[in-house]
Amino acid sequence: MKAEAMTLYCGATRGAEAEFGRWAEQFGIEEVNYSFDGHQNERTRGLHVLSRDELITGDVSLQYVSRLLNRNYTQKGDVFRKVLQTLFHIVNKSREVFVIGEVQEDRTVRGGTGWGAEFAKLCNKTLHTFDQTQDTWLRWSGESWRPVEHPAIGEAQFAGIGTRFLQDSGKQAIERLFKATFG
Question: Which residue range(s) make up the domain with 108?
């Protein structure tokens, strides 16, 4: 697959998403960085600020997300809701999802990124997560996370999402992912 025929769907924020964007740009991959008014963006290449109507399309019940992720998000504010709505668009447009974060004992990914991973599962997308605490890539089998040594991007439309608190191991994982795919 040629990099020029590929599109990275991502957010424009600092951390993992900005790192995915930098590597996509280096390899000549088109970027679509979803955001919303008032959000702090690190990436401007391919920036798509979601309209109010587009955000509403990605709306999800905070009670549902709380139950699915075994956490309480019902008291979160408007910015958190918009992040979840943005993740809907990122995952919905992609065919394969790569996440940088931490897989918890209950098999969910920590933080708001967890909604992106769970939504990918619900949509039967190919899903990989690099767990920064375990320093390993994992692939969702449909029932559990299984270790995978050297994942590569296999779909022309793929998503890169993850933590704002990117560690060196997460940066290296993204670099290796792109280099394993494009040489």
Answer: 3-182
